[in-house]
């Protein structure tokens, strides 16, 4: 059985949905650095950065980093269709997962914690960092939307790992509202991912209940 360390409304939703889509047995452990009553000490023993999602594998191994976890699940369980079967399409899905992790997810860390990126920054400087990172994040989502078309999903005929990660990460830092203005078709496609019957129950547990 897999053990997923995560928290409501966090990036662990993408991995939770992937485990559900792959029909893999798992248990959830609530753990988050901002919830001190959660299993944060247990999480830290597995992941010194105390970041979620963190996934403990059935063999006892530990995976961190959302994109790496989704890639592992897709490659290790090909019947889940979390990654496309076609090699060319699979290569683009892998590219997209790394793009989101490197260019979108990372920018959100700067937006949320600007003080970590400039020593002794006052409030005004922190706000400048936040505004610049937000502008960069939104531009990166525009590039993503132009680079990875939906057919009708990013994964092809059914949603996959890339759809899950994009749907989660685009919820933050005003990205959805921005995309609705500048890339409305892409924003609508992401919303369709969340309504998919295999995914909607997970989203309801994280954001609608």
Commentary on this structure:
Helix 4 runs antiparallel to helix 5 (123-147) and helix 7 (175-182) crosses helix 8. The relative contact order is 0.14. It contains nine helices and four strands; from the N terminus they run βαβαββααααααα. The radius of gyration is 17 Å and the shape is globular. Strands 2-1-3-4 form a four-stranded mixed sheet, sandwiched between helices. With 209 residues, it is of the alpha+beta class. The protein starts with a strand and ends with a helix.
Task: Give the SSE layout.
Elements: E1 2-6, H1 12-21, E2 26-30, H2 40-46, E3 54-56, E4 62-64, H3 66-76, H4 87-112, H5 123-147, H6 161-169, H7 175-182, H8 184-195, H9 200-208
Parallel strand pairs: 1-2
Antiparallel strand pairs: 1-3, 3-4
Strand order of the largest sheet: 2-1-3-4
Number of strands: 4
Instruction: Give start-end ranges of low-pLDDT stretches.
Output: none
Q: Overall mean pLDDT score?
A: 96
**Mass-distribution shape:** globular
Could you give a short account of the major beta sheet?
4 strands, mixed
Short description, anyone?
The protein is an alpha+beta fold.
Keywords:
209 residues; alpha+beta; four-stranded mixed beta sheet; 9 helices; 56% helix; globular
């Amino acid at each position: 059985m897999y053990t997923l360390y995560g928290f409501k409304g966090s990036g662990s939703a993408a991995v939770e949905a992937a485990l559900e889509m792959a029909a893999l047995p798992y248990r959830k452990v609530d753990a988050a650095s901002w919830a001190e009553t959660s299993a944060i000490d247990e999480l830290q023993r597995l992941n010194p950065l105390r970041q979620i999602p963190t996934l403990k594998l059935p063999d006892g191994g530990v995976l961190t980093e959302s994109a790496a976890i989704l890639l592992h699940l897709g490659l290790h369980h090909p019947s889940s269709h979390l990654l496309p079967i076609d090699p060319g399409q699979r290569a683009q899905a892998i590219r997209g997962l790394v793009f989101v992790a490197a260019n979108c997810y990372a920018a959100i860390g700067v937006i949320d914690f600007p003080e970590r990126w400039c020593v002794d920054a006052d409030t005004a400087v922190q706000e400048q960092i936040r505004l610049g990172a937000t502008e960069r994040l939104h531009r990166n989502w525009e590039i993503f939307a132009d680079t990875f078309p939906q057919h009708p999903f990013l994964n092809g005929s059914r949603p996959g790992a890339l759809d899950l990660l994009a749907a989660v990460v685009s919820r933050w830092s005003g990205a959805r509202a921005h995309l609705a203005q500048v890339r409305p078709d892409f924003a609508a496609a992401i919303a369709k991912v969340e309504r998919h019957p295999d995914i909607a129950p997970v989203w309801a547990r994280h954001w609608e209940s």
